[in-house]
Design goal:
Strand order of the largest sheet: 1-2
Largest sheet: 2 strands, antiparallel
Radius of gyration: 28 Å
């Protein structure tokens, strides 16, 4: 049985080599996909863990309305409330125990080209945030 198998393999060396190459390439692509997926997942996990590092409290207004999310929970992202006045920043800084306080804005931001037309992003949301250095 083994002799027949070995003779058959040696009789078709090119087919054996190409089959081995196909298996190696297939395994390599699968492994590469898993490594890329894990790398991207880790990058996003680290991003969302570090985004509010050192922030103990956020002061924001009450949203205009709330909506039930797809998971059935109450989601406060249903609407944006009024902006918190910039004058409140000095009051927050004066609270005992507050080491630092910064103001910021975040929300929908549509970019417009020189021709006056909206620059589309192919479905990705166009978000704008203020930069605090």
């Amino acid at each position: 049985m083994w002799r027949t198998t070995i003779k058959g393999l040696l009789a078709h060396k090119v087919r054996l080599a190409l089959t081995a190459l196909a298996v190696v390439l297939g395994v390599g692509f699968v492994v590469g996909t898993y490594v890329l997926t894990d790398t991207i997942n880790r990058a996003f996990d680290n991003l969302f863990q570090d985004i509010d590092r050192g922030v103990a409290v956020q002061v924001q207004s009450v949203p205009a309305f709330t909506a039930n999310g797809p998971a059935g929970g109450n989601n406060s992202q249903g609407g944006q409330g009024e902006r918190v006045p910039a004058s409140l920043l000095d009051t927050i800084r004066a609270v005992p125990g507050v080491r630092d306080a910064e103001g910021g804005l975040a929300g929908y931001a549509q970019l417009v080209g020189k021709d006056g037309k909206a620059i589309t992003t192919g479905g990705a949301p166009t978000l704008g945030v203020s930069w605090v250095n």
